[in-house]
């Protein structure tokens, strides 16, 4: 079945059906049958499809500005709704010849976190992803952070891919990787080293023919270095970590999308130090599927896995089959997910109160004019 997919097969289908794109350019940016079907639902004859490759910080005429890859060229476009890198767009022009995004196609996945500048807001980091590539440097490994990133990745709707980078800087990378696999039950893990090429081909094959991966992790984890290895050129700036605290310096300062020469798409992102959770119920269950499965065997359905009799989870910890540090990480993230849900409820109530207040005011004003 897989032989019917890929850029060449897609190009043939588009030539037969008359659907966009007219060349293979957008195929290299992840265009496929799913995007074509969504585009066909809303596009008109004067429209063009495009993918957002970069979002500008400054607005234009009060509207969000971004760089969009069209079939023929890369252009700057404006939009009434702020897009995210990776969005697929329906693009037209106004009377002055400015490119305008008339529609953003529905996202099938999005990587999001609580907006660090607004506790009641959400920040979409990237959209329409197949993989969230979680970068974890082996020379300063923090498994609890990976578990948090796995939760956010699963919540996005994409598949997580844990990349244990800088394998050349530790004595036995595979032994460390086995320990990580034992704790991160069910996670797809690849050991990589951009210095000697370990794992680079495996990652490249996972992204072929047209899958999109966002690079997710702290500064200095090797995101830009691995991206350059996949691209086959020094397209992105790289930097060393600081010697005093092993923290990375920001070499990527904005999110942008890059097609790979062998097929596949990367979205490079700046290093993230704060990872507040916006939503996470599904992500928590997926990232800790082993604990969720154990919880199904507890005597009480509402077991808190603390001191209840017949708790299968605490029994597994006591019996040595469940890592107590993994259980601690689960409890911490569970509390954050519950707090995030309460925050969203408060925001929803405030929004509804504001809507009712505005409606009441408008009704009163209308009555006074009569």
Shape descriptor: flat
Rg over CA atoms, rounded to whole Å, is: 23 Å
CATH T-level fold name of the largest domain: Rossmann fold
CA-CA gap between termini: 68 Å
Structural class: alpha/beta
How many separate structural domains? 3
Rounded average pLDDT:
85
What is the CATH architecture assignment of the largest domain? Answer: 3-Layer(aba) Sandwich
Q: What is the CATH class of the largest domain?
A: Alpha Beta
The number of distinct helices, counting runs of at least 4 residues, comes to 10
Descriptive report:
Keywords: Cytoplasm, GTP-binding, Hydrolase, Metal-binding, Nucleotide-binding, Ribosome biogenesis, RNA-binding, rRNA-binding, Zinc. GO terms for molecular function: GTP binding; GTPase activity; metal ion binding; rRNA binding. The protein has helices at 7-17, 33-42, 143-156, 173-183, 200-207, 223-231, 281-287, 289-295, 312-318, 324-369; strands at 48-55, 64-70, 74-79, 88-93, 99-104, 110-114, 122-127, 131-137, 159-165, 189-191, 212-216, 256-259, 265-268. The longest helix is centred in the last third of the chain and has 46 residues, at 324-369. Helix 3 crosses helix 7 (281-287) and helix 7 (281-287) packs across helix 8. The chain is an alpha/beta fold and 370 residues long. The N and C termini lie far apart (68 Å). It has a six-stranded mixed beta sheet, sandwiched between helices. Strands 1-2-3-5-4 form a five-stranded mixed beta barrel. It folds into three domains: 2-104, Nucleic acid-binding proteins (OB fold (Dihydrolipoamide Acetyltransferase, E2P)), CATH 2.40.50; 110-268, Rossmann fold, CATH 3.40.50.300; 281-351, Ribonucleotide Reductase Protein R1, domain 1 (Orthogonal Bundle), CATH 1.10.40. The protein contains ten helices and 13 strands.
